Amino acid sequence: MIHTLPKLPFAYDALEPHLDARTVEIHYGKHHQAYVDNLNKALSAYPELQAWTLEQLILRSSEVPEKIRTAVRNNAGQHLNHSLYWQYLSPRGGNPSSALLAGITRAFGSLASFQAQFTQTALAHFGSGWAWLVVHHGALEVLSTPNQENPLVLGAQPILVCDVWEHAYYLKYQNRRADYLAAWWKVVDWNRVAEAFSAVGDAPGASRRKRDE
Length: 213
Ligand code: MN3
Description:
The protein is built from nine helices and three strands; from the N terminus they run αααααβββαααα. With 213 residues, the protein is mostly helical. It folds into two domains: 21-87, Fe,Mn superoxide dismutase (SOD) domain (Helix Hairpins), CATH 1.10.287.990; 98-208, minor pseudopilin epsh fold. A three-stranded antiparallel β-sheet has the order 2-1-3, with helices on both faces. α1 packs antiparallel against α3 (66-87). It is globular and about 50 Å long.
């Protein structure tokens, strides 16, 4: 096995009552696991591609043999997106750091307007996909992507993500995506978002942008 399911950073029932144990168990143990298994299956006859990271498989898709390109793009994307989704959830998520809050205020006016914009973007996304907070050209932006797409292909660095595929909420919330989003906000791990924001700021190229501000 080349790619493996990352360890869930909390117990299945840790996010109750907001995200229920049964949904987390199936979402992680069945859906996410299937993306990992299908990625490994697609790569099984291509040992040279087995050393590539998920990011490489996504960003260098044109170099992946056509026979497996769609399977690799879909399953590597979904594996990466789900790995990120779990990282930003916690029963004790804290509050945005002062640096993150300053960035959010600069980009959106306030934390409340950021959350309203993110929720609206997630609600308005038609069909399966993802809502993201990203750093793009040095600024925070909210966007959504369809199906398996990760903002890396748009040149943006994700620092928070919400899964809006129906499998993320249907068992508990059925068609009520708005109720799922309201619950999801209650288990966002702001400490991890702040860490990711800070890591992007420390990345090569970011210091120049900071100086230029
Ligand atoms: Mn999902």
